[in-house]
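Retro notes (design track)

What went well: tokenization of the new backbones is finally stable.
What didn't: we kept losing track of which sequence belonged to which structure.
Fix going forward: every design gets posted as structure first, then sequence, in one message. First example under the new rule, 213 residues:
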């Protein structure tokens, strides 16, 4: 039996101080009766320190030495993406808000023109899928861990990798018309469709000015 086996057993209550007399019977029983209360208090403080130290060792062992795998589903993120892309056209649009052809073109565009590359643990299509699901549905990291069968750190890292690459689209695609301020282009200033949502009264502007300065 391994020397640490008793630490993994939930049946053994090692951490109750009341049982310390059973574990260390000679701590409270000496040949002569203890008359000094300070000495007894020191013994109790020593037991508490032993308890804290042992708990810390056990926590470190369970978290960093004897790790229990969490994402063990046979439905990996790569397999999930294959099911979506090879399935009905509606599934791809519902998941990524893009049709299958647009999704593939978007991935190739990010790879060939903006330098997005796959990693050892996640393909190019999978990391773009993580990014699109987050933006399309506003899901949190925990749900993405369950969908794509990756850790939270992996999900967060790949999301920001794609986000950084998508930001480069601002130099070539996501740009206003050169004569936008003159009313040229599709989105015109003072457009009757959008202006009511951005109209700000003089009182609001004055309040912002006062709060700022």
């Amino acid at each position: 039996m391994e020397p640490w086996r008793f630490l993994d057993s939930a049946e053994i209550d090692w951490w109750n101080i009341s049982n310390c007399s059973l574990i260390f019977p000679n701590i409270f029983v000496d040949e002569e009766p203890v008359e000094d209360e300070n000495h007894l208090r020191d013994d109790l403080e020593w037991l508490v320190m032993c308890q804290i130290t042992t708990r810390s060792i056990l926590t470190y062992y369970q978290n960093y030495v004897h790790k229990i795998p969490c994402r063990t589903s046979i439905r990996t993120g790569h397999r999930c993406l294959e099911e979506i892309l090879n399935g009905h056209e509606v599934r791809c649009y519902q998941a990524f808000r893009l049709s299958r052809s647009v999704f593939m073109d978007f991935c190739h565009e990010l790879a060939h023109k903006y330098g997005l590359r796959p990693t050892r643990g996640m393909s190019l299509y999978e990391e773009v899928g993580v990014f699109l699901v987050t933006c399309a549905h506003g899901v949190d990291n925990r749900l993405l861990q369950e969908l794509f069968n990756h850790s939270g750190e992996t999900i967060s890292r790949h999301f920001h990798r794609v986000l950084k690459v998508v930001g480069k689209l601002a130099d070539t695609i996501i740009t206003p018309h050169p004569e936008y301020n003159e009313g040229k282009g599709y989105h015109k200033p003072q457009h009757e469709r959008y202006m009511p949502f951005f109209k700000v009264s003089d009182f609001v502007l004055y309040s912002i000015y006062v709060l700022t300065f």
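Added context from the reviewer: Residues 1-30 have pLDDT under 50 and may be disordered.
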